[in-house]
Specification:
mainly alpha, two-stranded antiparallel ribbon, 4 helices, 2 strands
Length: 102
């Protein structure tokens, strides 16, 4: 007997990461922090703006296809991969009911 196909609703807002100016939030905060640090250390606001725009450009290039790409690149460099929820992979959970307590 063929297995009955199961359909799970997937909501776009749950699976969509938060992006600011087209890049993921942590990458945006990193770009702001790097530009701010450059401005504090060297006192050059034009250099800080250039660093921010350069990091923003690279961030947008990395997140054009997949918003989580920056996270994957960083994890690949450190060697600490984490598993993420994939709604396409379904593994049924077996539940066993115990009638009496031990």
């Amino acid at each position: 007997m063929p297995e009955e196909r199961r359909s799970n609703p997937v909501y776009k807002t749950l699976n969509k990461p938060l992006t600011v100016l087209g890049i993921e939030l942590t990458a945006f905060v990193t770009a702001i922090g790097t530009a701010g640090g450059f401005q504090i250390l060297f006192g050059n606001i034009f250099g800080a703006a250039a660093i921010f725009l350069l990091l923003l450009y690279f961030g947008r290039q990395l997140t054009y296809k997949d918003p989580m790409m920056i996270l994957f690149v960083v994890q690949a460099m450190t060697g600490a991969f984490k598993s993420y929820y994939d709604p396409c992979k379904y593994k049924p959970v077996t539940i066993r009911r115990i009638r009496r307590r031990a």
